[in-house]
Amino acid sequence: MSVSIPESSVPPGGVGRAGDWAVAQRRDGSLRAVSSRCRHQLADLSKGSLDKNGCLVCPWHGSRYDLDTGAMVEGPKGFLWYVGKTPGYTQMIRAYGAVLKLRTRAVERRDGDLVVGDR
After folding, report:
1. What's the pLDDT score for residue 68?
2. What's this model's pTM, rounded to 2 decimal places?
3. CA–CA gap between residue 19 and residue 36 (Å, rounded)
4. Of 38, 49, 110, 114, which has the fewest beta carbons less than 10 angstroms from its beta carbon?
């Protein structure tokens, strides 16, 4: 079953939520959806942001995700309420994220909505 949100709710360079998906519109206008829970501590990635490289950045500890593959390209910078260096821990989470990537979906524009595909 596909889900949708109004196109106006996700501006270029922005992120929004459609059901269980974080929908991102890169600055070039391309669209992608990924599962909305960070692999680190399950933060809502639809509350995240896009960096200059078009990666989705977790709002809690800064893990970065490739929107095309769902892979974690940079691990977290903290744990629980602490934000800062976590030697060893960051590498462990990144290894976990390499095995359990975010699910990805294509998104299309349809009648003023952004529709997350079924596959």
Report:
1. 96
2. 0.84
3. 9
4. 110
